Amino acid sequence: MSTDVSADTAVIKALKRIRTPQKQRNREFWLLLFAVLIAGSALTLVQLGALGTVDPAILAIGGGLAVLAFALHIVLRVVASDADPFVVPIATLLTGLGIAMIYRIDIAKSFTGWDAYSTKQLAWTGISLAGAIAVVILLRNYRVLFRYTYIFGFVGIVFLLLPFVPGLRIPDANAAVWVSLGGAFAFQPGEIAKICLAIFFAGYLVRTRESLTSVGTRFLGMTWPRMRELGPVLVVWLISLGIIVLQRDLGTGTLIFGMFVAMLYVATGKTSWVVIGLGLVAAGVALATQILSYVRGRFINWLFLFDPNQVDPERAGYQPMQGLFGLAHGGMLGTGWGQGRPWVTPLAHSDYIITSLGEEIGLIGLFAILCLYMVFVSRGVRIGLAGQDDFGKLLAIGFSFTIALQVFIMVGGVTRLIPLTGLTTPFLAAGGSSLVANWLIVALLLRISDGVRRQPRVVIG
Predict the structure, then answer these.
(1) Each residue of 24-40: pLDDT tens digit?
(2) pTM of this prediction?
(3) What SS3 class is residue 163?
């Protein structure tokens, strides 16, 4: 009798799901349409401002990418109807604005065809959206990742070590973070490594959370861990220092350690871990500043940028100065798409794309972009906090904090809030490996949010 009742209930629920309009997906559709229209308008305004005419070819390619974005939307309707409706539109809009800005710089430098950064960015955007669609379709249950916790940790370390493999490293790169396959294909393995390590950190902390929270010494109002529990933190800290020293990559080392400390705090709820993490960061920075000339140089540029006795304005100080001058030139409202001079700043399409955007769309436009990031991160945190599964909670919050920390490091670096590091601004900056990694994070957040909403709620009382 109970079996029949359960079967009838399951059938009724299935029929309700079919008959009930997918409100989440309908909301996503209209937001995605708005994002595509804004991105298309940005491309059109760039052409009108810089060329005085409209080239339909670039708009047709952008339309093709819009088709892929809507393809992801359709896939979500079929296989993940309860996924968060804000994540895809925000990522699409940020990617579209980045392409428009990169295309604007290509016009100024007369880059066309495959030599244009915007052409490569369009190709990588297509690959990224295809990868996101594949992950959403193939990864039906994100909890499967928990089984392979240590495998993901091993793969993440291997990716970080790839630049040291003979024949793979690009010899003339400033930092040992790029690898090249046959000279025709280059990517940053650290971008994929951060995803693998986030999965590893989430799985590891779920397995060891009880020992990390239940023991320790009470001091200054906080419970401090024993040396046995402190060991993993020191290992991750040493790995981060190794990245900074051996790869000359201050940004990735800081990002990985910051992500681990944030996830550790969420897993344990102990403030002492944050204090320990900040202390280790301060110690690492002090050590790196003393023994590494390039780290010391970045701190000198940060503190004494406009002192000609400390920083040469024609060499080390040229890029950050031009970036600040570009922001000042844009003012509150900006010069308008295609009307500024963002190409004057070196690497205006990648490291300094924030100042390029600030010059042409102004401080108000830049604040709007930062608000998009804020909403994206808040939705990711909301996805994590809404779930009853500890692994999904840690993974969603870890990914969200990674995006937030990366934006803070880049925006703070180009505006002299903090020393500049070698990261990319998520979704905006030119770079295929970064774009692919960020869209894979989008796909994983979608899968986690769909799984969270489908979890049965425990009602008490």
Answers:
(1) 889 999 999 999 999 99
(2) 0.89
(3) helix
